[in-house]
Amino acid sequence: MFEQLKEWDRELFIYLNGLGIERFDSFWIAVTQEEYWIPLYIIFFILIFIAYKKKQAFIVCIGFLSSFVVTFGLTRLIKASVARIRPNNAENLKEIIRILQEPTYYSFVSGHTSSSMAITTFIVLALRHRFKWVYVFYIWPILFATSRIYVGVHYPSDIAAGALLGVIIALIIYKICKKMLARGDKELEEL
Questions:
Q1: Is residue 115 within a helix (H) or strand (E), and if so which, with residue range?
Q2: Looking at residue 47, what is its pLDDT?
Q3: Region 131-158: what's the mean pLDDT?
Q4: Over the stretch 13-44, which tens digit does the pLDDT of each residue have?
Q5: Sequence-distant (≥ 6) Cβ neighbours of residue 113 within 8 angstroms
Q6: Pick from 158, 150, 151: nearest CA to 101
Q7: What is the DSSP string of 144-185?
Q8: Which of 183, 44, 11 lies closest to 126, judged by CA?
């Protein structure tokens, strides 16, 4: 059963990666680079400070940063434990897939996907009460995750597991953050 799932994952990866069109390569290479998303992170911080009072905003910022740090750390632990070779490094795939990047570290789970889903889910949970349109930010992790298959460095299961991991971590950290915010509100009421 497990071998069959791996084979389907491999075949789906080959199919999706093969849909790539050369004239869009530079777009997907840019999308997959973290530094191009720095303006989005700045927007997230600005929105937090618009939506919350100063002390609350700092608590939410700590939650925002924690969602990234915890996800990054767990992703690295999982990658080291599972030790799955990336498709771009698999000898039996090199001749049949499009490879636009060549990272050498392990594949499962996708760090780009897990981190972007954690950050986005946390931001959506934290800001949805103030900005109804905040769900549009999910475009970012969808593009980010798609780029990883396009450039040839992740299987679909790496993406799916990374997305699930990111959402779970964001939900946990948001619940903790919400308790901290509620405790802070009670302390203000007692003054």
A1: helix 111-127
A2: 96
A3: 94
A4: 888 888 888 889 889 999 998 888 999 999 99
A5: 141, 144, 145, 148, 154, 158, 159, 162, 163, 166
A6: 151
A7: HHHHHHHTT---HHHHHHHHHHHHHHHHHHHHHHHHHHHHHH
A8: 44
Which of 191, 189, 168, 142 is closest to 78 using CA atoms? 168
Q: What percent of the chain has pLDDT over 70?
A: 96
d(CA 48, CA 40): 12
**What residue type is assigned to position 72 of the chain?**
F
Q: What pLDDT score does 113 carry? A: 95
> 90: alpha, beta or left, given left = phi > 0 and alpha = psi -120 to 50?
beta
Q: What is the pLDDT of residues 57-69, one digit of tens each?
A: 999 999 999 999 9
Q: Is the pLDDT of residue 190 over 50?
A: no
C-alpha separations of 175 from 37, 59, 81, 182 in Å? 26, 12, 28, 11
Q: Is 90 helix (H, G, I), strand (E, B) or coil?
A: coil
83: left (phi over 0), alpha (psi -120 to 50) or beta: left
In degrees and rounded to multiples of 5, residue 69 shows phi and psi of -60, -45
pLDDT at residue 188, rounded to an integer: 42
Q: Are 162 and 111 in contact (CB under 8 A)?
A: yes
